[in-house]
Amino acid sequence: MSENVEEKPREEKEKGKTEKRKKEEKGIFSLYKIENNQVVRLRPTCERCGPGYFMADHGDRYTCGRCGFTRYKQIPEDTK
Ligand SMILES: [Zn+2]
User: What is the distance between the alpha carbons of residues 58 and 66, in angstroms, rounded to a whole number?
Assistant: First the structure.
C-alpha cells in the first residue's frame, strides 16, 4: 500500500500580455528631407568627424555618437 501522490506543478502561462512596441523607423531617411528638389539635412554633422557623421538630437544639445562631441543648440532669440 503506497500512497501515490503526484504533484504536477501546473504552469499557467499568462496570456494576454502582449507588449506593443511602437515601430519607429530610424534610419537614413529620417536624417534627410527633400525640399524644393534639394536635400536638407535635419541633423547637424559632427565638426570633429566631419560630414557624414550625424549628431544625435538630445533636446537642447547635439552629441556625436562617434567621438562624443557635444554641441549645444543655438536658439535664436526671435523664437522666444
Ligand atoms: Zn564626432
Answer: 15
